[in-house]
Design a protein that fits this description.
Blueprint lengths: L2 E2 L10 E2 L3 E7 L10 E3 L5 E5 L4 E5 L6 E5 L8 E6 L5 E5 L4 E5 L5 E5 L5 E7 L2 E6 L2 E8 L7 E8 L5 E2 L5 E5 L4 E5 L7 E5 L4 E6 L5 E5 L4 E5 L6 E6 L4 E7 L2 E6 L4 E6 L2 E6 L9 E3 L5 E4 L3 E6 L3 E7 L9 E8 L2 E6 L4 E5 L4 E6 L8 E6 L5 E5 L4 E6 L2 E6 L5 E6 L5 E5 L4 E6 L2 E6 L5 E7 L2 E6 L4 E6 L5 E6 L14 E4 L2 E5 L5 E3 L5 E5 L4 E7 L11
Antiparallel strand pairs: 1-7, 2-47, 3-52, 4-5, 5-6, 6-7, 8-9, 9-10, 10-11, 12-13, 13-14, 14-15, 16-17, 17-18, 18-19, 20-21, 21-22, 22-23, 24-25, 25-26, 26-27, 28-29, 29-30, 30-31, 32-33, 33-34, 34-35, 36-37, 37-38, 38-39, 40-41, 41-42, 42-43, 44-45, 45-46, 46-47, 48-49, 50-51, 51-52
Length: 544
Amino acid sequence: MAVSKARYTGAAPVGLADGWSLERLVPPSRLFGANGLRTGPDGRIYVAQVAGSQISALDIDSGDLETISAQGGDVVAPDDVDFGPEGDLYITEYYDGRVSVRGADGASRVLRDDLPGANGITFYQGRLFVNECRIGGRLMELDLNGGAPRVLVENLPMPNAMEVGPDGMLYYPTLGGNDIWRIHPDGGEPERVAADLGVPDAVKFDAEGRIVSTQVGSGEVLRIDPRNGERTVLATVAPGLDNLTFVGGRLFVSGFTGQITEILGGGRTRAVLPEGLTWPLDLTVDRDGVLYVADGTYFYRFTPGTGLQMLGMLFSPGWPGYIRGAAAVGGGAFAVTTSNGQIARWTPAIGEHEVLAGGSEPFDQLYGVAAGPGGEVVAAELGTGRVVSVRNGELTTLASGLDRPMGVAFAPDGTCLVSESGAGRVVSISGSGAATLVDGLTKPQGIVVSGGALYIVDAGAKTLVRASLDGASRTAVARDLPVGAPPGVDPKPLKGLPPFSGPQDLFAGVTAGPDGTIYVSADAEGSVLALRDLGGDLQKGEPA
């Protein structure tokens, strides 16, 4: 396949209505995050990308990427990879609980589909070992012919990427235990090797037989001598490190943000691939006009001239969960919806969150959220087709029977507006039910009201639509936006597994600044767009 410089290439450049400009505030991402790493027989690094259901091969010197297994293909949510004795690529598919095999001809087959949280994978003397990154996970040897697994250890607290050391012992980290263990490949009693780390999520070995482990919580790359326990911090990159691999004597690590970093020694590093956004999902602007970006396991503030600044991530104190929808509510706080089915108020500066609804009975696939004029927090529950409101601990259903609601906004008169991605319309909610405001859309997702108009991201049509609040007129502000699935691709849903409950779906959010700037989360390419009306006649734009 062709070498690429970006993860997404649209069919056409973005087209704008007269008088509008477009600026990419955040550059497009090269990858959909970066998870498992393995050096291939060709000397390239093979990168598994859970969120994008993609595997890419990276040339470490040129930075060129080749897509090995593309989004929409047979492999779904690949988390870790290794090469078998015959050169086939073995893949753990985290959300689907599978281990698949991809041959040299590109064809894939499923070896096992009953391993929930399948994650760490490694070969040793032709034998295949896999573990499950979940509470109560197992470490096992798989039969290459598809026979029943042989369980070495069970009831593990989220084991992850592993490898056999020069002593012939299988070493594996546990995120839940914050330690590293070893066991003989033939079984026996596990032995703890190191504890009180920075949340280790991968173990490999250098040429001197020392453990090298990425620490997802602290962002450290740690070297441990298993013979005497001596520890050395090789470098500190950033929280969210995921895996590592050696190419000859060179060490490379991956991170949730898609950054691939070479560890040079003496604490120095080199970014082989830059970091980027994995999705992004929702956007919000606070009362001071500051833009915030929800990217699932990360949440950022955007500052012109500085760029993205992380306010919180999966391992931050008080993290509310995988964030899909976000709305600034004042005082540095945000109303958020999470993939674990909760509506929460989160204040990142103090590392605290309060669950407003969904604590004892989680919601089914929450997406957009908005703060109402009366202090209520309103959210779209895609799974049940509801729109719910919570205020002072009281939960109210504002609408039900909707077709995959996703985006929520309020008109100036306090009317609640909701996008129905399944029905291709935006409705207004009142005591008498849902009334169509804008129809004929393909897959509307994020919506926002600004300057007396409603802006809709139609992810299916890849268009930003501006509609009057009475629904009488509309026009296309931008076409061929990098939102939704790539052209011709039908992504398979990510089933989800705690703490990344699912199914996960794309959500192109939109928000507006006090100056009328419209911000769009370009989830297909992993960027954030700023669209501005420079005074042109919007009526000259093509009808939407």
